[in-house]
Structure formats: structure tokens, C-alpha cells
Amino acid sequence: MRAIWKGTISFGLVSIPVSLYPAIRREELQFRLLRSSDHSPVNYKRVAEKDGKEVPWDKIVKGYEYEKGKFVIIKEEDFKRVDVEATQTVEIMNFVSEADVDPLLFYKPYHLEVGKGGGKAYMLLRDALNRSEKIAIAHVVIKTRQHLAAIRPQDKNLMLELMHFPDELRDRSELKAPEGKAPGKAEINMAEKLIESMTTPWKPEEYKDEYREAVEAMIEDKVKHGDSKSVKAAKAKKPSNVIDLVSVLQESLAASKSKRSSSHSTKSAHKTASTKHAKSRKKAA
After folding, report:
1. Model confidence, pTM
2. How far apart are CA 239 and CA 251, in angstroms?
3. I need a surface site. Which of 110, 131, 160, 177 has the fewest CB within 10 A?
4. 245-284 helix and 185-197 helix, angle to the nearest 10 degrees
5. Across-strand partners of 97?
6. Which of the four pLDDT bands, split at 50, 70 and 90, describes residue 171?
7. Does domain 5-25+81-168 have CATH number 2.40.290.10?
8. Amino acid 83: pLDDT
9. How many C-beta atoms surround the C-beta of residue 186 within 10 A?
10. DSSP assignment, residue 85?
11. pLDDT-based confidence at 232, cuts 50/70/90?
12. DSSP assignment of 25-79, as one string?
């Protein structure tokens, strides 16, 4: 894995050399556009608006449109000239309680790996954040854009999570508020029981991209058998107008308990079978 950025974390007079690595991996299924008649791949071309001619990469520059149809050309050295120090520094501005920050502001996590000679200062910041239950709010420039970011402890390391600037969030007052009679006490109690019955320990390995797996299986089947097999589309569940919310919650609660009981019975059966198998092997020995 290659670092996408190298620089320092700076707070007060402390500087910590770090490298930034993506913390998420998203493998999207890649589809090509094809001509239907012969399945020839369709390519995109970079075409100039003025004359419709294709433009090679070495003839393309970046420009900012300051007036309609008028551009100023921006070169790589212009970006570097803006603020050389800022492009290599995660500048911590202040520390805040994470609970005070709107979760919608966080959007992209990165791993922060300590650089040579920065171990003690790195651990100092990590441990201080842990003990104070705070996160650091910082500015960082990646490529050509300044980002708001949060630094937080993550096990033995630190993470940097890019944030939206508050003015980038849409005003929630534009959303339509729910209407109708508020839920009654009995309904709330049933909902709480349903939540409790469906509560389990957090096991991240149990969560998979089922849609992606289904699409991959469908593609594999088409590769093996061609397009001759017709596939029926899955029927979407239609939302119903719930009148008796309590009865629906009761049915959901009963189904949840039945599911958990069935799961427990299956695990017990497997365990019993394994025990009997082990005993029979021991007798045979």
C-alpha cells in the first residue's frame, strides 16, 4: 500500500512526521459500454468544444472560468506556490468532544502512520486524546484542496477523517417533518422490546455486500451458460398502510424470537453432533 500524502501533524510546538493511507477499500464491479451489434467496446474521447477535434493529454491544461468563456490557466507550480507549508502539514486548530460534532460532517477515513523519529510524540497525542475523550480538529491540504479533518485514536494508531465544512451540509429544515398522531406508550414499549430482541454483539465479519455477491454470481452463471437463461426479477416489497401498529410490532417480535430460537437450536445441534463425533472417535481409538 502506497502513501497518498506525507507530512507532519502540528499542534503547539509539537511536530509529528506521518504518512496518510486510505482506510477503506471499495472494489466496484467494472462494466464497459459496448456496441450492441458486435460487442465492440465504446471509448470516450477528449474533444474540444470549438472544433470537435480530439485533444491528447499532453495538450490539456487546467483552467478556471472567471467569466463566461474566459479562463485563467493554472499550472502545478501555481498550486504549490499558494502555501507550501500548508500542503505538508496537518495543522491542529483545537480539540473538541466528538459528541458535539454532527456525524454528517465526517465522510472519509485515512490511516495515519507515524514517520521516523516521531514515535514518542505520536503516542503522546494518541494517549492524550484517549484519556481526554476528545478529537482534534485540523486543516489539511491534499492535492489541490484544503479539507477540514478530525484526528482520533484507533487502537494503537491515529486516524484522520476528512470532514465537510459545516456550510456544505444542506439545511435539514427543508425536509418535510413526519405528520400524524404521535406513537402511544404501548407502541413505544413494543418497539423497545423488538429492538431488544434483535440486539446482538457487534460482529463486523457477518456483514457482507449481498447485492454485489448476487450480481457476481449472476455474471458467473452467464459466463458459463450464456444469455439463454431468463432471470426473473426480484419482487420489491410494497409498503403497506399500517393501521394497528401494536399488532405489527407483536408479530415482528414473535418472528424475531422464533428466529433467534431456531438459530440457537441449530448451533446446539451442531455442538451436540460434534461432541458425539468426538466421543465415537475416542472410543474407536
Report:
1. 0.67
2. 16
3. 177
4. 20
5. 134
6. confident
7. yes
8. 61
9. 11
10. T
11. low
12. ---PPP---B-TTT-PBPPP--B-TTT--B--GGG--EEEEEETTEEEEE-HHHH
